[in-house]
Amino acid sequence: MERIKELIQINRSYRRFDNSKKLDMGFLEDLIYSARMAQSAANLQPLRYITVTDEQKAEQVFSTLGWAGYLKDWDGPEPDEQPVSYIVVLTTKDSSYAQVDAGLAMQNICLTAIAAGVGSCILGNIKKERLAQILELEEDLSILYVVALGYPVENVRVISIREAPDHKYFRDEKGNHYVPKRCIDDLLIKEL
Ligand SMILES: Cc1cc2nc3c(=O)[nH]c(=O)nc-3n(C[C@H](O)[C@H](O)[C@H](O)COP(=O)(O)O)c2cc1C
């Protein structure tokens, strides 16, 4: 119980990584195994995945992604801090259940990664047409999300939303990243 809570605590969105520490295909296959184990509405399993470890391909994928919309003076990670690998989450059918399935699968991916010290960031801000070209995607598949991966080189801390102006994440002058989370009292509206 304590271990899973600890993993959930450190399973933050990381956006700066050590680009010199690569991940191998076997590791990404392990992450896909965890995605495979996720619950799926009606067990339809509409999701498909593309893993990217090739350096040049990874640079191309990076060019399609939008980072940290709330950090207006930050354009995303510099080359030496860019993710080393990606998992592109695709669906065979565009249904709302595919979105739920994707959330569950990505959580399994991210938790499995952080258990090995590998950080991740789920990205929905994607130039999808461009990424589809880069991946030479077949017509029957559509892109839902990209999970960026690598060894983190930033501190990401959860704080109470009561200590922050609002829900927007922010950084201090040292580059520490703070994520305001709503308090239990605000979330749990009734205990019957
Ligand atoms: C569905 C989804 C889409 C997201 N898309 C982006 C994105 O495009 N770019 C980005 O930098 N972060 C993205 N994030 C990360 C969120 O900004 C992050 O989860 C939120 O700020 C809370 O931080 P935490 O993950 O550390 O708790 C996304 C997260 C989710 C769940």
Automatic annotation (TrEMBL):
Presence of the UniProt keyword Thylakoid in the record: no
CDD domains attached to this UniProt entry: Nitro_FMN_reductase (cd02062)
Electron transport in keyword set: no
Molecular-function GO terms, alphabetical: oxidoreductase activity
A Pfam short name: Nitroreductase
Residues making up the signal peptide according to the UniProt record: none
Protein name in UniProt: Nitroreductase
Taxonomic lineage of the native organism: Bacteria, Pseudomonadati, Deferribacterota, Deferribacteres, Deferribacterales
